[in-house]
Amino acid sequence: MATLDTSLQLPTAHGDTGAVGALRLSARATRLIALAGLGSFALIIVAAFVAPPLWNAPGTNSSAAHVAAYLQVNHGRTIASLFIYSLGMGLFLCFTGGLCSWLRQVEPAPQPLSAVFAFGAIALAVLIFAAFATAGVMSYRPQQPAFAAALSDMTFGLLALSGIPTAVCLGAYAALVLRHRCLPAWTGWLAVLAMDAHILIAASFLSHGSFVSLEGVVIIAVPATFFTWILATSVVLLRAGEKRTAVT
Fold this sequence. Notes:
Elements: H1 2-7, H2 17-50, H3 64-73, H4 75-104, H5 112-140, H6 145-161, H7 163-180, H8 185-201, H9 218-247
Helix pairs in contact: 2-4, 2-9, 3-6, 4-5, 5-6, 5-7, 7-8, 8-9
């Protein structure tokens, strides 16, 4: 608790009643940001259970016919999970937008790291939504094997490339937190771990059939670090909002 308390150092207003009202609004906004992050994490986990297990998906070296057959058998679960994943990513944008506002309070002008964090979050969301759209198209109706394999590769390729803006987003967060200590430092180091992992996932195009490949184990293991960061940061913000409410 001592680490959390000393790390939540935001500029606070002093003096008149209007300043106190602003502080209350900030505490409520902080809780909303945290709830958006927790909601995003929860929806992502639900979607992961609804979706066909990724470890059962056709591998990089699977035939096009195998890919087409797999998509047809699992099209219902895939479409349902994509809808839930999309809702989760929508809440993720709300979470990162609010978190960016939080971070901007502690970074001196012109606040370049906060801007990098925001643009990284937007870029990764765009690539992920593009991957969801591709996955939806390939699962919506039966596909010819050649098209099914190409769409599958494009889906995983977009997810792999999203690792670059994800690493940028997490790196900016880590730099801000570790420099200004506005949130617990361990969340910054968790972001560093996830950043390094997502640089690895972006290298999926460099290999075929190994751990680091488009449909390899890396596509399952690496995103878990990102989801863990969302959960951890959301919990910290929720506790911060409750603490500030108690103070007022």
